[in-house]
Structures are given as structure tokens and as C-alpha cells.
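Exercise 3.2. Students should predict the tertiary structure of the chain below and write it as C-alpha cells, then compare their answer with the key that follows.

Predict this chain's 3D structure.
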Amino acid sequence: MVCAMRTVEAWATGPVSVPTATVDTMASNSDPWRPRQLHPSIEDAMPPATGKPTILPGVTPSWPGHEYGRTPIPAPAPSTPGLPGGVLRTRAELEALRDDAARQFHAGEPARVQLDEDEYEVRRPGTFAQGVWAVSACLLGELQSAPISGETHDYPYTVRQVGREEIHGVDRLEGNDWPDIDRDYALAVRDTVRWATSAWKNRPVPPAAA
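Answer key:
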């Protein structure tokens, strides 16, 4: 009651001077739109800088608090000269695979596939042989567009460009993308790229004489 009477009296007698410190405290506590400082700023919390370290030529900093070290230059992916990056098979091997896949496709025979993890062959539709032929011809520089994406690049292709088609094939097999691409065709693209970029994968289609 006493506080209320003093407030009314203050309004009746005119403006009342209030200390500046009291005004700031009241504003910070009563104004909901004024940001309230709950912790010290980062500039106040961090110790003063003692000087910026000198970075020597050829040295890349890793992150604060750790020593600087030289950035290793990644070794280029091994590949056959004259062929796209990452391709380990020879041009003769790619040409033989291309011809065998084309022979099976035009003969209307189901493609015979030797699975890596099994010792028996499985039969695939003609679209599988078509996918094997497309990748082989593409890696030989005979096709102007990629087997799945249809992208065009300068030949010989880079490792990234070759691997991207394998990823497209995996995306189709897993149902993530490319729904209009035949599943066996996408499987052939994936397997042929993996065979061309490795030295131990089984041939996507066996030789014609086998």
C-alpha cells in the first residue's frame, strides 16, 4: 500500500529524477525486446593474441592448437595410358569385351554372367549385354555420351567421370534415382565399370569361345 501511494504521489507532483544506473537496470529487466547478456562475449573470454604464426611455403595449417604439417599430394590413380583415368584393363581387353557383348545382344541370347562370389553362371536379359557394350564402347572413346546419364565429356575421361556412371548404376539398383533405366542395364553398367577399374573382378560376360 505504501508503494502504491508513493507512485500516485509521484505522478501528481510531476516528474521525478531517478539515478541513471537505476534506469538501465530497470530497462534491462523489464524490456522483453532488449537482448540480455547471459555470458561474456567471446572477445572477453579469449586470451589476447600473442601473434600470428608464420606459414611457410608448401605448408598448410590443419586446425588451431595443432602443429602445422606438409599437405601430402595424392598420388594419381593408376590407369592404362591412353584410356580414361582409373581404367586398369588394356584397350585389347575392352575391345574383346565390347565385341562379345555385342555378339550376345544381336544373337538374342541371354547374357551369361559369372558372379564374383559364386562358381556358377546366371542368365541375364539382352539389356545386360547392351549395358556391357555401352560401357566398353564409352571407355574406348567410341560413344559421345555416358551410358546412363548421357553426359558428354572430353576423352579420355577422368576418374571422377568414370566413377560417376557406376554410382548412377548403383542408384538405379537401390531405387534412389534413374527409374526409367532398365535394372539389368544399370547392373551391367555397374559391373563393367568395376571390372574395368580393377584387376581381379570377373569379366561381365564370358568370352565368345567359352
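Discussion points: Confidence is low (pLDDT under 50) at residues 1-12, 18-28. DSSP finds seven helices and four strands in the chain.
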